[in-house]
Structure formats: C-alpha cells, structure tokens
# Entry
Amino acid sequence: MEINPLVFALPAGLDVCGSVLNFAGLSILTTSNYQMLKILAILYVVSFSTLIGSRYSCHQWIALVLVVGGMVTISVRDMTTVEHSVTVGIAFMVVGQAFHGA
# Structure
C-alpha cells in the first residue's frame, strides 16, 4: 500500500501557520500569558470533536469551563494593564491555536 505524500500537506501547512503565529505572539506577550494561551488548543479540540459526535461527561465540561475561565481572566487582565500590542499578541495566539487544534 503506497501513501500519497500530499495527504500530509494540509496538516503540515496548518502546523507551520500555527507555529509562526504562536511565535509571533510569544515575541509580544509575557511568558505567563503565552503559556496560558497555549491551553486554548484544548478548547478548539473539544469544539471540533463534538462536531464529529464525541461526547463528554459533566466533569469534563466543568474542567473545560474552569480552564477557559482562568485563561480569559489572565488575558483580560493583561489587555487592560499593558500596552496595546498585547492585544495583537493575544490575537496571534488565538488564531495560531486554532490552526494547531484543527
């Protein structure tokens, strides 16, 4: 069985785009905010997997809400207390993690 190498082009392209955006965000953000926003990939994976029929328990949804709530709290705090470029860094991270979650 021979595998067409072009099958890997889309996942590789998404990974490259996500990595470039993440590193652009890292150059703007503090490391603590960067690490918190890396957790955003979990939200995207759960969102995409529910679209294909995966089911999660109540405990798992509560854990996801707590994690995302902490991430939003840190991001909003940094956006309101630091210069405007942090908002751009957060936007880079959000889009970059979407590519990694896909």
In short: Residues 58-81 form the longest helix (24 residues).
